[in-house]
Every structure is written in C-alpha cells, then in structure tokens.
Amino acid sequence: MHNTNLETIPVWALLLVACILLTQSLFLFIHSRRHTKYYWIWGIVGLIQAPGPLIAYWFVHIYWPRRKEHLKRGKDRSKPNK
Questions:
Q1: Cα 30 to the chain's mean position, in Å?
Q2: DSSP tag of 6
Q3: Other CB atoms closer than 10 Å to residue 14's CB: what's the count?
Q4: Does the record carry Transmembrane as a key word (predicted)?
Q5: Tens-place pLDDT, residues 4-17
Q6: Can you give the pTM of this predicted structure?
Q7: pLDDT given for residue 69 in this prediction
Q8: Helix, strand or coil for residue 8?
Q9: Of 66, 64, 65, 19, which is closest to residue 46 (Cα–Cα)?
C-alpha cells in the first residue's frame, strides 16, 4: 500500500482542489435551479468529485432532452402531409 499523509500534499494543491469542487458545485446548483427541481442534490453531488457530476448533469439534463427533441422533430418531418 502507498502511504500518503496530509503533510506530503502541498497546501496549494488542496486549495486548488477545493476551488475546483466549489466552482463545479456552484455551477451545478445555479444551472439546475433554473431547469430542474432537484437543485440541492446537484449542488451537494458537485462537491464529491470532479468532473463526474458535471458530465452526468450534462447527459441527464442537457444532452438527452435535446437528443429526444431532435429525434422527435426528425420523425415529424418524415410524415407525409395529408
């Protein structure tokens, strides 16, 4: 096993990780507050790790609805007018 103490991790690295996680969490909270009703959950999940929650949010609330709408519009275009 690899032994890692907090003394071996530089302070600037801890501050950088904290800033990245807080920024991600704040972005997820603000964006999901406008678009979903589970904004607290996305804000808390954003504090856990990076960039996993950001990628998951993008797939669930941005990519899939747009993809579904695009496919729906494509099917509507293929129908003949009566």
A1: 11
A2: G
A3: 11
A4: yes
A5: 666 788 999 999 99
A6: 0.70
A7: 85
A8: helix
A9: 19
> Count of residues for the chain?
82
Instruction: Write a three-state SS string for 37-70.
Output: CCHHHHHHHCCCCCCHHHHHHHHHHHHHHHHHHH
Chain position carrying tokens 């494509």: 74
Mean pLDDT of 56-72: 86
At 24, list the tokens. Answer: 């991600």
Which two structure tokens, joined as six digits, stand for 47? 């504090």
Place of tokens 């275009």: 77
Which amino acid belongs to residue 50?
A: A
Question: What is the H or E stretch that residue 14 is in?
Answer: helix 11-35
Which pair of structure tokens corresponds to residue 63?
Answer: 């990519």
**Angstrom distance (rounded) from CA 9 to CA 5:** 7
Tokens describing residue 62: 């941005």
Q: Give the percent of the chain with pLDDT over 70.
A: 84
